[in-house]
Design brief:
The protein is α+β, with helices and mostly antiparallel strands. It has eleven helices and 29 strands. The strands form seven sheets. Strands 7-6-8-12-15-16 form a six-stranded mixed β-sheet, with helices on both faces. Strands 20-19-29-28-25-26 form a six-stranded antiparallel β-sheet, with no helix packed on it. Strands 3-2-1-4-5 form a five-stranded mixed β-sheet. Helix 1 packs across helix 3 and helix 9 crosses helix 10.
Amino acid sequence: MSKADYPCLNIAIAPLSAAAGNHFAIWVLHAPYLGGHVHHDCPWPDELAQTWQAWQQLFSLQPMSSPLAESTAKIGLADAANGPVTSYSSLLMQKLGLGLWQWLFSGPIQRSFAQSQGIAMGQNKPLRVRLELRDPDSIALPWEIMQPQLGKPAISLSQRLLFGRTTSDVDALSYRLADRSLNILLVLGQESAGNERSRLDLEKEATLLAEIFARCGQLNGTTPYQVTTLIQPTPTDLIQHLETHETHIFLYAGHGIPAPDGGKLFLRPDTTLSGTELAHVLVRTQVTLAVFNSCWGAWSDRLNLQSIPRSSLAEVLVHHGVPAVLAMRDTIADREALSFIEAFAKALAQQNSIDRAVSLARQQLLTLYKFNQPAWTLPVLYLHPEFDGCLVPARFFDSSLTELPSNSNTRIGQPLSSAYLRLVGGDDKSWPVRAGLMRVGRTPQNDLTVAERWVSKRHAEIFYRNLQPSGENGKPAYFLRDFSRYGTLVLNAGTGSWQKVHRQEIPLTSGMQFKFGSSQGQTWEFSIEE
């Protein structure tokens, strides 16, 4: 089972006009079925605002005043507040988690989620849920603690869900998958403002982190790590290393603060690097994952008490095309950060996808530091909307799977008919849909490589689905599923016009023509041999 093939539900949240007050639009951008693309408008509840305000007062070192935390309602935890602090913090954690879930997954959004989860369960796969927050004030909220009901795990801890945040209006992906080892660049910067650690202390920390990765990469059935360390480098040293060494994971440990251009990282006492500057380097050198063991990496900057859109370090990096960014929503203690990194490194080495590895490491934090403590809620994962979360090639994941042979029957008495693609106006060469599946994209890993600049790396797939009965009038049932950034154009034989299919699935009939990514692209024809 390839991690790239998990069903995915993408949900966006955006504020309505200022005249509408604290009202939001919630809609599904992508769902594993056509009817899942729904929309819902709802206000931000007064009780949820009060709960969020109470959360910040208890857990956050830097409470944020925002419209989402303005309320005069009573929080409803009076009895717990008179008891032990631990009891109050647990109830507050639950109340906010339940409230966020009930607000987000309501009305048609709940129905789309339930149907999508049912599809994933039917395929015996987890459902990927990616949340896009287009209101900068909502970014600070701990969406990772959303909980469907008491006794159920939070969304970021569930075995059946893979949760991450995402963002739109992104540049195209460009990254390298690991082959023999996961190459890590470990950068240790200034620890905190006005607190410069000795070179010896930094070297000890670097050795400790390198030992963690070495230990995790030596377990049976894991991908080894190769770690290179730079201690308080200059920007020139950092850029030179990235440009001359293949790097899959960039890990920064040091001081960071919010800033309008993606925050600031303190490489040295007198040297900072902005998120925007770092983004250009990471994209140019095709780094896949950036991890920040620093404060406020997933926190928006503020101007005159107003959150600045797209100013957090994590968002800026993904906007520029970095596939995955893991940053902290608030401050995190050193021992908590080390516990998380060790569990995360172990899960990645065992060839889990990045979102699954974050979930496993988060569970470790919850076990060590308890549910009522905020440690497990601090890591925030951002994923590029086109990224499947894999650090190593799909063949590593699928090496133990049995593939359907080309001469197999998909059901008794119903052989798999031959289907193929042909380039219209070409030399009559055809590309067969082998064993009922053809992957189409720009890279050589696909069954059909279409080397056009508007074609996504993993653009679409054509597949056979065993229906009962199989298709109309007993004919084979083939489908096209689009995963791309720009969509697939399909020719409507009745009108002679091209229609766009984007992140959708459509049935195919023999003779259908389509173009991948652009109207300027080559025309392909799908055919079935009866």
